[in-house]
Amino acid sequence: MFRSLQALTTIVVSTVTIAGFAASASADNDGNTVVYEVAVTNLTKGQVFSPPVLVTHTTDAAIFAPGEPASPELVSVAENGMGQPLADLLAGLPQVFEAIATAQPIPPLAPPEEGVSFEIHSRGRFDRLSMVSMLVNTNDAFLALDTVALPRGRGASHTYYAIAYDAGSEANNEGCTYVPGPACDINSGNDRDEPGEGVI
What are the DSSP calls for 10-72, one per residue? Predict the structure, then answer.
């Protein structure tokens, strides 16, 4: 397993409102729908994060497992910052309440008041949140929150620190022909010929 223990970002998850929202993803009728604000602050000096994929789900759902191969949909996030295939896959699972591919990247070293915020919904037994986002100046690294608890009660909040994982799908050469981030030019990041470690 390849994992960095350095915190890359703070993520504050807050209960915003409790309402009768009808989710488009699979759900049952176990309680009121809750709207959560997920505020993300990038703590790195020069690493842009791709628009994240957020998912609310039960405890028995998982986006990835360290030591196992990454799904093609997760590889799409980790190598190219493309989250919609993963969100579409997750939205079809019965353990998932809502899965969204956001559109806003997360810039580095922004003060907390300028962090990027997203809204997501959940209810009842769908009491966990996961999030993934590409470290765009890398081959196939991604940051993740993995099955963390959603806060309970109006106005409650939790703060989490996310760490980085290596998807294992591409060699870590950090060459601009493999890295799509702003550290390289606009024509970079197209080659995908060097295999990686094979597991997250």
Answer: EEEEEEEEEE----SS----SS-EEEEEEEEEE--SS-PBPPPEEEEE-TT--S--TTSPPPH
pLDDT of residue 44: 87
pLDDT at 30: 62
At residue 22 the predicted structure's pLDDT band, cuts being 50, 70 and 90, is very low
Neighbours of 128 (CB within 10 A): 23
Maximum Cα–Cα distance across the chain: 50
> How many CA atoms are closer than 13 Å to the CA of 59, on its beta-carbon side?
3
pLDDT recorded at residue 182: 81
Give exposure, 15-53, as e/b (b: 16+ Cβ within 10 Å).
Answer: bbeeeeeebebbbeeeeebbebebbbbbebeebbbbbbb
Look up the pTM and report it. 0.85
> Which residues lie closer than 8 Å to 1 by C-beta, 6 or more apart?
66, 67, 199, 200
